[in-house]
Structures are given as structure tokens and as C-alpha cells.
Amino acid sequence: VQLQASGGGLVQAGGSLRLSCAASGSAFRRYVMGWFRQAPGKEREFVASISVGGYSKAYADDVKGRFTISRDNDKSTISLQMSTLKPEDTAVYYCAADINTTGSPHSEASRYDYWGQGTLVTVSS
Question: For residue 16, how far is the Cα from the chain centroid?
Fold first, then answer.
């Protein structure tokens, strides 16, 4: 499984940005997908996850109400719509795939089997 994240860039605080992640392989609709981020000097942290069917989602507390994760199983893609961005959202954002899954979204990084290369989001104050 190969994952390709895109959509990062520079945005002012309060602005919006949409990240996308394209996956290879024909079994995408059976993967739980997630977004994580890593800010400079900090550990990687969970952002959001979505179930195989897209009906169940999980979010980190500090992005709830601002970020929305979605997926298109026909196109093998997931997206992360980010709104009301803050300087503390600045990080490299990674998409990840859990292929050995019960189908429910989760925040456990160790359970994700494949990772994209990351896309940088910079939020200026």
C-alpha cells in the first residue's frame, strides 16, 4: 500500500486548508484510515481517524469542531478539511492506513501499517 499526501501549505491563522491522501491498492475500502501530525521538536500525535465505511470518525480533542475527516472509497482517497487554523496546528501531517482492522477508527499509531510521506502545514499568526 502506498499513500501520497498532498495539500499542505502556508495559511494565516483563522484560515482553512484541505489535505488529501491517495492510496494504492484495491482493498482501500477495508482499511481504517487516519491522520497524524508532528510539529517541530514534538512527538507525532493523532489528529483524526475514519472507519472503513466512513460513518464513524474519531478526533483529537484539540481539533474537534475545526477539522473534518472524510473518505471516498471509489477514489481510494481520504481528506482532512481544516478550518479555523491556529499557529499550533503547524506540523507535518501524515496519512496512515490500518489494514488489519476491526473497522473502527482509532488513535493508536502502532496499529497503522502504512504511512504516507507527509505534507507540511504552516499556520502564521
Answer: 15
Cell 469542531 belongs to residue: 65
Helices (H) and strands (E) in the chain, counts: 0, 11
Using DSSP, state whether 28 is helix, strand or coil.
helix
Distance CA 24, CA 46 (A): 22
Where is 125: in which H helix or E strand?
A: none
Q: What is the pLDDT along the chain (125 residues), one digit of tens a residue?
A: 999 999 999 999 999 999 999 999 889 999 999 999 999 999 999 999 999 999 999 999 999 999 999 999 999 999 999 999 999 999 999 999 999 877 899 999 999 999 999 999 999 99
Pairing of strands 114-115, 9-12: unpaired
Collapsing DSSP to helix, strand or coil, 96 comes out as: strand
